[in-house]
Design a protein that fits this description.
The chain has 127 residues and is mainly alpha-helical. The chain contains seven helices and three strands, in the order ααβααββααα. It has a domain of 39 residues.
Amino acid sequence: MDSASSKTGGLSSRDDLVLRAGRRPRPPKLYRIGEVVTYCGLSRQTVHNYTIMGLLHEAQWTEGGHRLYDESVFSRLDLIVELKAQGRHLAAIREYCDRLDEKAAQADGGLDQSKNGLIAEQGSGKT
């Protein structure tokens, strides 16, 4: 984390400017499954199945029990579609996504440890 972001608690420069202007930063956009389907072109059932399988993770739930996804769902869906186009089976895609999630969790807990793990993997030919 650089010195500028450490002073603002990891906020982006836009959020820092917003705070200095006396306003609160905007919350991240959350999408209901219908919105995700509209933007990604997959069926509602496919997105639901990917969520149940653990390929996608909901960010929150509404009080009415609807899943809400953050913007990362779109890049994850793009990845899944790409891997499926390469002939990968969903089980292999899930294993790959699980590894990505583990690395992301490590990054949240210790960025340096995650970088070292990625560098070691790249050096050994694993990616």
